């Protein structure tokens, strides 16, 4: 048996990953579906599914993950988009590279499932109060992964930790190079000081130009 995204009844497609050619340190960026902007920006706990699709083919689920950071799904994938900058974990770095490789031949889609508040009876010290409570995102993630595993016999290919398998060798090598070339605290401090110096020089030059212009007018 196989499980494709077409079989999933609770998820909606919210965007695609596209090749990036700008100056920022990244290989791809998100193209969000603005018809679902309320969902994309929602702070509710969420499950994301990274799906690849050959032209005319069905969507293959590559990774199932969870997130509950503020900023919604946009912020969740901002971390993956920035996988080549700063000090990313191998997971963030690795997913960035896997997506960049995949989009050379296939479409990469992002699908989401969001938690919804449910009514529960919550006991206090003196009485039981009825409240609207959001289910644990961890429970949702376990449910989604277990549903997948029950059909496929294993976790999705890019869920390396859950599968107990190492990252691809090319990702490990690239990550080691990333760590080796990472700027030290002293280098980062120096770059910051240089930026501030250039900024101060621009402001000073602008002010001097204004003063010169005012003197001429007098």
Characterization of the model:
The protein has 218 residues and is α+β, with helices and mostly antiparallel strands. The chain has a single domain, classed as GIY-YIG endonuclease (3-Layer(aba) Sandwich). Helix content is 43%, strand content 23%. It contains seven helices and seven strands, in the order E-E-H-E-E-H-H-E-E-E-H-H-H-H. It has helices at residues 37-41, 72-81, 90-102, 137-152, 160-163, 169-180, 185-217; strands at residues 12-19, 28-32, 46-53, 59-67, 107-114, 118-123, 128-133. Strands 2-1-5-3-4 form a five-stranded antiparallel sheet. A two-stranded antiparallel sheet has the order 6-7. Strand 3 and strand 4 (59-67) form a beta hairpin. It is extended, with a radius of gyration of 24 Å.
Short structural summary:
The chain is an alpha+beta fold and 218 residues long.
